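assembly run, all chains below
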Amino acid sequence: MADPVDEDLLRRLAPQVLGALVRRFGHFDTAEDAVQEALLAAATQWPSVGVPDRPLAWLITVASRRLTDLLRSEQSRRQREDTVAAWVLPEQGTAPAADDSLVLLFLCAHPSLAPASQIALTLRAVGGLSTAEIARAFLVPEPTIARRISRAKKTIRESGVPFRLPGGVEQPERLAAVLHVIYLIFTEGYASTSGPTLHRPELAREAIRLARMAHTLLPDDSEVAGLVALLLLTDARRVARTAPDGSLVPMAEQDRARWDREQIAEGVALITAALPRGATGPYQLQAAIAAVHDEAASDTDTDWPQIVALYDLLLRISPNPVVALNHAVAVGMARGPAAGLELVASLADDERLARDHRLYAVRAHLLEMAGDLDAARADYETAAERAMSLPQRRYLVARAARLGR
Amino acid sequence: MKYMILTYGSQQDYAEMSGWSQEDFAQMVEFMQAFSNELVASGELVDTRGLAAPVHTRRVRLEGGVAVVTDGPYAETQEVLAGYWIVECESYDRATEIAARLAKCPNPGGVFDATAYADVRPLVEGADEL
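ok done. output:
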């Protein structure tokens, strides 16, 4: 029986192979296809013939040959159709040398791409996932993902982005886009917006892997460290978040013994080191909030005033309705439900929350705390109608039912 | 005096070569290495390189001050530069003699067919020689 190929090895090498090919031959879009085929060749051949002594060199050789073949048929097709592929060389200065994986992360989070495309392309080109795997993770048909990826690559090709790190004033903004893509991959894995299960841990794991990679490449950036910490501290609660029947368990009722202590310790260490360094950004603040939750021995032990203070800061630097909603919950816990409800009332007119179940779920929770059970039930029911994932919906229906008639 | 010996191949030739058996390919590589090593030993080799497949060519056209890049400008059967040797030797005839030895290079059909060729061209050392 042949040994299965170490998938981590292939996934780790994938962006390095792609980087090597694009640096040497260009053609990001075609090279990406060639790398996928080389990875597939490795996955099918290595189990029987063994892993080569220099797996990276093996993959680069195979992918280069494949790229030559792909370019050859591409060029003869173009010649038949009498079209030429020409582009005007952009007049840009040189940028500092950087790790290929990092360049790829930036390229895949290019602002000319829609978030869904950024995510799919990042998972394939940097994560080394196949189209089929990405389609499975997002519960969409494979052709949909395939189209999304090929359109994204076409956009990148046509935009003529050079294969190097964005420089100067552009970089912080582009880094924010990279981190956002990783964050979206995580949230899609952690709190699936659709489908029958609450989370798809493989996506959450992949996001953590990508975030760690970014942190290794940019060790001095405290927001990157903040993102890793946030993902670890949130993911540490994953197992306790689902009951045996697949339903959602709110944090207050989770069995904290099932939280992943090792991950919490790592996340806390990261955020503790990051906070005093440089500007404090939204990922660090969210990580700090997650750390306060994770370090409380029980729900009643939670340092709510501290969480309120962190949300105050977060609202100031990155005001958005979901943060405001979480702030209202924290205020409700720290100062009583009336104070929380007052804040929720001020958010009720926000259009961005109008169709979202969360406003109703939060208000229901605060109303329940305040003892207004009829109003709480009505809000739980409205929230249930609007929730997209089945476990969330079941949880909200159950909360409503618990309050009786 | 310096000369450049140039060999040519089309994308099709490159593709055929990648279909050779390992033994055939190894024989060719061995011949080429011996050929170059002899030039090193005689002190005549300045530099030698092989070029990647023509499909990887980028043509940079310089149109009215703007650089326009074209991918893969060659047709599949068009013969283009495949490799070169720069030799420094006593005469054009000596450089030609060196190039002639390439005729013995083995390939799966035996030796090169009637259409195979190498060019020898004198290098200029400065603008005044043009």
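The radius of gyration of chain A is 24 Å.

The first strand of chain A starts at residue 86 and ends at 88.

not gonna interpret more than that til we talk
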